[in-house]
Specification:
Blueprint: H1 5-14, E1 24-27, E2 32-34, E3 48-51, H2 54-59, E4 63-64, H3 84-94, H4 97-100, H5 103-110, H6 114-125, H7 129-147, H8 152-158, H9 164-175, H10 179-184, E5 196-201, H11 208-218, E6 224-227, E7 230-237, E8 240-247, E9 255-262, H12 268-278, H13 285-292, H14 296-304, H15 316-325, H16 331-345, H17 364-369, H18 379-393, H19 405-413, H20 420-429, H21 442-447, H22 459-466, H23 473-486
């Protein structure tokens, strides 16, 4: 849907939750910008300026509303109204590229010029890349002030600020108040210093059980556990190690709840972003469903599994290794092999505090040097994992959003032992490419049997049919994999 000013104002007047995060309204008379669901009195039409993202309002001099809390919105879907380059740039900014690097570094990783990148961001988002990154840090800091009891210095570091001084200055400039003044107004927070609790918003509908079932079948023993409606895993962020537990949504709240236990301070903004990728919380299920319903088979599956998400990955390298292990074996077999790999080469947690979670997944540096004998791995698969690990460790391969889908698949396929299926699967889950589609997958071909019902659909026929599903083929794949079990 094209978000014209008239449509935006109608959504604002009715406080339509479907538009939450898809745009923000800057109010000239108050100097504040709000979500379309803000409970404040609706401003006059002539006082409203509608912007595609919070950073555009911030850069224009507006302050975030303290009532509707823009930091609590489900986020602007990165693909709406943007070019492919901007979409990938937003994902890299979400991964923290501009927390430690420059716009020139970001442009180089995207393969474009710095001036051209700035022009694209201004054209599609109304804000420059640096403004997007600064707004991201500011809103996350406000979230931590509201939802946690972390000391101010830890809030600054956890939000991606280089110093407490910059944190204080950014909050004063953004909110017109000091961090302590903002914290005094908070409604409540976690006081347990050993655990930080964060709320991760999303858009309904949300097929939490379907997502959890998918992850449960593929959980790596010792690294991940899915039980009692929760997902728990070991994590390593910089020098910090520990566990994260994620619980599903309640009927009253459109958010997941993450409980984070780490043995040292860490950039929680990166933790939150990774979790958003794992559970695909930035998806707009309404937009995706409207497109995929043009196919009758997918429409039936959407009815069975509304709110489908593409399960992501905590770490791209971990997912790529898991994909290689899954070549030509069952899901259960690949999971067993991954557990052996983690047990032998992964670092043991010094203070495991979650049942069944005992190890970190091994790093590229470790697996690049390891002799992967005695694990039950075929030689070709062991060599493929070693080659992947060395390529990632040396920086020859980046498992992020630096390049588009075609470039990513081509680069992965150049590595020995990695074919089209593996590359598309990695792009789909680890790199968050919404149009990735492993057309050769036997499960997908069986889900759409040939016309006479005698056997799986041919790969070419499936690829041709999937052209109509662009740019959401990854979501169609998840529906074809999972919906029959729940239909």
């Amino acid at each position: 849907m094209q978000l014209t000013p008239d449509i935006c104002y109608r959504a604002l007047r009715t406080r339509d939750a479907r538009f939450d995060g898809r745009f923000f309204v800057a109010v000239r008379s108050t100097g504040v910008y709000c979500r379309p669901i803000c409970p404040a009195s609706t401003p006059k039409r002539e006082n409203c300026v509608f912007v595609p993202c919070a950073a555009a309002a911030q850069e224009a001099g507006y302050r975030p509303c303290l009532r509707c809390r823009p930091e609590a919105s489900p986020g602007t879907p990165a693909w709406l109204g943007t070019s492919a380059t901007v979409s990938r740039g937003l994902r890299l900014i979400g991964e923290g590229v501009l927390d430690h690097g420059s716009v020139a570094d970001l442009a180089e990783r995207l393969g474009v010029g710095e001036r051209h990148l700035r022009r694209l961001f201004l054209q599609h988002l109304g804000a420059a890349p640096l403004a997007v990154a600064q707004n991201r840090r500011l809103l996350f800091a406000k979230k931590l002030l509201d939802e946690t009891g972390l000391p101010m210095a830890e809030v600054a570091f956890a939000s991606g600020f280089a110093s407490v001084r910059r944190f204080n200055a950014a909050v004063r400039a953004g909110y017109g108040r000091t961090p302590r003044e903002l914290r005094r107004a908070r409604r409540g927070s976690s006081r347990d210093r050993s655990e930080t609790v964060l709320k991760l918003p999303f858009r309904r509908p949300f097929d939490w059980q379907g997502l959890l079932d998918f992850l449960a079948l593929r959980a790596i023993p010792g690294v991940e556990v899915v039980s009692e409606g929760r997902y728990t895993r070991s994590v390593e962020i910089g020098a910090a190690r520990g566990t994260i537990r994620v619980e599903g949504p309640s009927e009253r709240q459109d958010c997941l709840v993450a409980s984070i236990r780490l043995d040292a301070s860490a950039p929680l903004i990166e933790v939150a972003e990774r979790l958003r990728r794992v559970f695909d919380l930035g998806a707009d299920p309404g937009e995706i469903a409207r497109h995929l319903r043009s196919d009758p088979e997918l429409a039936r599956r959407l009815d069975a599994s509304p709110g489908v998400r593409v399960p992501g990955a905590w770490d791209g390298f971990e997912l790529a290794v898991r994909a290689i292990l899954g070549q030509q074996v069952s899901v259960r077999g690949a999971t067993t092999l991954a557990g052996r790999l983690a047990s032998r080469y992964g670092e043991a947690l010094s203070q495991p505090d979650a049942p069944g979670v005992s190890h970190l997944f091994p790093t590229p540096a470790i697996l690049g040097r390891a002799r992967l004998a005695g694990l039950g791995l075929p030689g070709a698969r062991a060599r493929a994992i070693s080659g992947l690990a060395r390529a990632v460790d040396a920086g020859r391969l980046r498992l992020d959003a630096s390049r588009g889908l075609e470039d990513t698949v081509r680069t992965l396929c150049e590595l020995p032992g990695i074919g089209e299926w593996t590359a598309q699967y990695v792009a789909m889950r680890a790199l968050r490419e919404p149009d990735a589609f492993p057309a050769g997958d036997l499960g997908l071909r069986r889900a759409l049997r040939s016309g006479n019902g005698a056997g799986p659909m041919a790969e070419k026929a499936l690829a041709l049919r999937a052209e109509a599903w662009r740019p959401w083929r990854a979501y169609a794949a998840v529906l074809l994999w999972t919906a029959p079990e729940r239909a």
